[in-house]
Amino acid sequence: MVSITTGGDQLSGQPDATFRLDDFKVTARDIAEPDLNALLALSVSVGWSHRAADWAFMRSVGRGLVAMDESGRVHGSVMWFPFGVARGTIGMLITTPRLQSNGGGLWLMGHALAQTQGRMLGLHATRQSHRLCRSLGFRDEGTVYQYQGHIGAVPYVAAPPEAQVRELAETDLPAIRAIDRAATEWDRGLLIDALLAQSRGMVLVRGERVEAYALMRPFGRGVVFGPIMADSDDDALRVLAPLMAAQTGSYGRIDTESVTSRIADFARQCGLEVVETVTRMSRDEPWPFSTGHAPTQFALASHATG
């Protein structure tokens, strides 16, 4: 079994491949193995809104494992998402109450940390997983607010005279990748490409230069807005507003680090409310997302990937 030092700075040894769960065992299996419906049943059992398509997307951009019994039922999951060779995030940590009460969350995280040794890691911890992540050496960095709700009347937001807001085009992709790299300081090219393949986007252009963008894609009960990257709150709002307006009457979600920003205020005006908070945490070195330099990430792509 995995051993953890007091204070949580190190996790040594390879976790056992099997885990005793009362009167039966579960085995650590690659997350690519189970049927999507088995993963969907797991997330539904804990009240998450992910669809089978959302699981398929996560598997396409990340790696991980599940706790599976002999009948093929999935009792837990954990994933990690590589960004370059030195960084990554951990997410999709789900355990059934039975697995969790027996220490299965620690066992799953042990496998994830064994697979990601040498990488700087970040994650967003729920209230249920926060203590576990603290025990494994992750440090608190801030709060992310999850806004959700049915989108009502969307206030009009005009572009300034010197800029144009338009639909994202294929020729904008190099600029989108460059903005993401500048904002996050991470190599998230594969993630951005995957997001662009299933998203609608808006860009703000000044002097033929793309300076802000926002993406929107199907997720859960409706759509999710993010990531949103811009040099200022004003520009972030300008690329978000047309996407939000196009979804009037639909169910929407946006994850942001603030409850006082213009983005947060706009979300509330459109009918979205904070339904959950998670804690941004890091291990070995801080996330670069909140450095305050421009461009800045104003909304996450997801809790799992940042």
From TrEMBL:
InterPro entries: Acyl/Acetyltrans_Enzymes, Acyl_CoA_acyltransferase, GNAT_dom, YitH/HolE_GNAT
PROSITE patterns (alphabetical): GNAT
Record-annotated N-acetyltransferase domain positions: 26-161
Coiled coil: none
Gene Ontology MF annotations: acyltransferase activity, transferring groups other than amino-acyl groups
Pfam families: Acetyltransf_18
Protein name, UniProt field: N-acetyltransferase domain-containing protein
